[in-house]
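Weekly modeling sync, notes
Attendees: S.R. (lead), two postdocs, one rotation student

Agenda item 3: backlog of single-chain predictions. S.R. asked that every request posted to the team notebook include the full sequence so nobody has to chase files. The rotation student volunteered to paste the first one in as an example of the format we agreed on. Action items at the bottom.

Example entry:
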Amino acid sequence: KDLPGQVSLSIGGLSPNNHLAPCAAFEVSQAPGAKAWGRTSVRVHCTQERGWTIFVPVHIKVAANYLIAARPLSQGQSITDADVGFQTGELSELPNGILTDPRQAVGRTAAMQIPAGRPLRSDMLRQVLAIQQGQNVKVISVGAGFQVANEGKALNNAAEGQVAQVRLNNGQIVSGIARRNGQVEIAF
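Predicted structure, as returned to the notebook:
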């Protein structure tokens, strides 16, 4: 995997009871959803005829820059470049969801008060809502060679690119993709 920063790997001990045949060709992979760093295990599979598979404990350390709040952030505050800074540390020692790229934070809003110097995690931030529940919205249906506009009321909150449900003025409920300026797009 592409991991940010300097990566080091410690391989845990294997059971002496493993009597594996020698292997000249093997594949190494992580299980889907496995942690990218910290204590985890990797799957080693011998691809030769009469191959074998074992899981090997590993400790993946990643020393990298991660985002911190450059100054105190208020709940609901929109995050700008000036609001984030960097600190270097061992990512496996930090909470899950730590952010490593300013693009993961800038443009979002603080979900809670965040003191200066606190490492930023994904659960501390929310996407800015493009559509709010109860808002009057314009529904644009787009297809090959046509575009139809309608109006209705949003039934849920949605950030840009998320699914928004709308009750049209005729009572019909439709789903589309939230866009800026109170618009919901339905593509055919």
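Discussion: group reviewed the output briefly. The two ends are 36 Å apart (CA to CA).
Action items: rotation student to repeat for the remaining queue; S.R. to check formatting next week.
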